[in-house]
Amino acid sequence: MLRRRRAERVKRVARPPEPHPSGAVPPAIPADLVPKHIAIVMDGNGRWANQRGLSRIEGHKRGEAVVVEAAKGAIELGVKWLSLYAFSTENWRRSPDEVRFLMGFSRDVIHHRTDELDELGVRVRWAGRRPRLWRSVIKELEVAEERTRDNTVLNLAMCINYGGRAEVGDAAREIARLAAAGRINPEKVDERTLAKYLYQPDMPDVDLFIRPSGEQRTSNFLLWQSAYAELVFQDILWPDFDRLDLWRACEVFARRDRRFGGAVDKPDEPLFDESTADESTADEPAAHEPTAGRPATDEPAEGRPAHDHEETR
């Protein structure tokens, strides 16, 4: 029966995302300049709620739909991997009430959104630690992974109970254990060896790292994979983020000159001709500018929480 269901999933054609309400279409970015892997810190839920006199929990609720919206934008542009920072290993320091809510909320979001993601051809993956994570959350993640494992349109990595340093540390611990057991030669351990023991070994390096909310730090997210990522910071709180913001960041990415440590002499020409971009996004503000009609983050830096990714889900 399971084999038959998998065959049915493989044969089923994924439905395309519905158009953006504004009618906007993806910018005409050459295929070789579209990022293959985008990582996003889902930041600003708490501030979004506080600006409206609401509890932080209401901000997290509003951010749920943005997960699918970001996935739709990635699909339309041809991105193959999207990684979202949902709950970090440091987020356990928050109040017990908020932690309890976020655990239950993560479980329910995965449960309620898996059908839609599956229809879109999205393969759900989980990156993070098992210890401390609620068993009910792990169960929903595993069910979503199994159900969508044959989908190929987009890989969506939900990073829950995740930390970049923790991931590297866990990989190093496993390599040390195998070396002590004589199964790995310590003299042959290199970067490729460590990469094999990360949470998602087949995850490609991050090309574009996006952080909304006005903060400008990576907050321990995908440290290994983001070694050569292009960073784009946006003055948009996560609940207000949509596919247009993702496309703007991709346009910024397409204009970057990625050398990976090398350098060659070449004419000073733009990598991406903005004149070929669709009119619906060509005249939009740059990624670092506040989006018209949306609340910008203009509070003083000293008034913001000092803890890294304080507002992530």
From TrEMBL:
<feature type="binding site">
    <location>
        <position position="60"/>
    </location>
    <ligand>
        <name>substrate</name>
    </ligand>
</feature>
<comment type="subunit">
    <text>Homodimer.</text>
</comment>
<feature type="binding site">
    <location>
        <position position="48"/>
    </location>
    <ligand>
        <name>substrate</name>
    </ligand>
</feature>
<feature type="binding site">
    <location>
        <begin position="44"/>
        <end position="47"/>
    </location>
    <ligand>
        <name>substrate</name>
    </ligand>
</feature>
<dbReference type="GO" id="GO:0030145">
    <property type="term" value="F:manganese ion binding"/>
</dbReference>
<feature type="compositionally biased region" description="Basic residues">
    <location>
        <begin position="1"/>
        <end position="14"/>
    </location>
</feature>
<dbReference type="InterPro" id="IPR001441">
    <property type="entry name" value="UPP_synth-like"/>
</dbReference>
<feature type="active site" description="Proton acceptor">
    <location>
        <position position="91"/>
    </location>
</feature>
<feature type="compositionally biased region" description="Acidic residues">
    <location>
        <begin position="270"/>
        <end position="282"/>
    </location>
</feature>
<keyword id="KW-0460">Magnesium</keyword>
<dbReference type="GO" id="GO:0033850">
    <property type="term" value="F:Z-farnesyl diphosphate synthase activity"/>
</dbReference>
<feature type="active site">
    <location>
        <position position="43"/>
    </location>
</feature>
<feature type="binding site">
    <location>
        <position position="92"/>
    </location>
    <ligand>
        <name>substrate</name>
    </ligand>
</feature>
<feature type="binding site">
    <location>
        <begin position="88"/>
        <end position="90"/>
    </location>
    <ligand>
        <name>substrate</name>
    </ligand>
</feature>
<keyword id="KW-0808">Transferase</keyword>
<dbReference type="GO" id="GO:0016094">
    <property type="term" value="P:polyprenol biosynthetic process"/>
</dbReference>
<feature type="binding site">
    <location>
        <position position="211"/>
    </location>
    <ligand>
        <name>substrate</name>
    </ligand>
</feature>
<feature type="compositionally biased region" description="Basic and acidic residues">
    <location>
        <begin position="301"/>
        <end position="313"/>
    </location>
</feature>
<protein>
    <recommendedName>
        <fullName>Isoprenyl transferase</fullName>
        <ecNumber>2.5.1.-</ecNumber>
    </recommendedName>
</protein>
<dbReference type="GO" id="GO:0005886">
    <property type="term" value="C:plasma membrane"/>
</dbReference>
<feature type="binding site">
    <location>
        <position position="230"/>
    </location>
    <ligand>
        <name>Mg(2+)</name>
    </ligand>
</feature>
<feature type="region of interest" description="Disordered">
    <location>
        <begin position="1"/>
        <end position="28"/>
    </location>
</feature>
<feature type="binding site">
    <location>
        <position position="43"/>
    </location>
    <ligand>
        <name>Mg(2+)</name>
    </ligand>
</feature>
<dbReference type="GO" id="GO:0005829">
    <property type="term" value="C:cytosol"/>
</dbReference>
<feature type="binding site">
    <location>
        <position position="94"/>
    </location>
    <ligand>
        <name>substrate</name>
    </ligand>
</feature>
<dbReference type="GO" id="GO:0000287">
    <property type="term" value="F:magnesium ion binding"/>
</dbReference>
<feature type="binding site">
    <location>
        <position position="56"/>
    </location>
    <ligand>
        <name>substrate</name>
    </ligand>
</feature>
<comment type="function">
    <text>Catalyzes the condensation of isopentenyl diphosphate (IPP) with allylic pyrophosphates generating different type of terpenoids.</text>
</comment>
<dbReference type="InterPro" id="IPR036424">
    <property type="entry name" value="UPP_synth-like_sf"/>
</dbReference>
<keyword id="KW-0479">Metal-binding</keyword>
<dbReference type="GO" id="GO:0008834">
    <property type="term" value="F:ditrans,polycis-undecaprenyl-diphosphate synthase [(2E,6E)-farnesyl-diphosphate specific] activity"/>
</dbReference>
<feature type="binding site">
    <location>
        <begin position="217"/>
        <end position="219"/>
    </location>
    <ligand>
        <name>substrate</name>
    </ligand>
</feature>
<dbReference type="Pfam" id="PF01255">
    <property type="entry name" value="Prenyltransf"/>
</dbReference>
<dbReference type="InterPro" id="IPR018520">
    <property type="entry name" value="UPP_synth-like_CS"/>
</dbReference>
<comment type="similarity">
    <text>Belongs to the UPP synthase family.</text>
</comment>
<feature type="region of interest" description="Disordered">
    <location>
        <begin position="264"/>
        <end position="313"/>
    </location>
</feature>
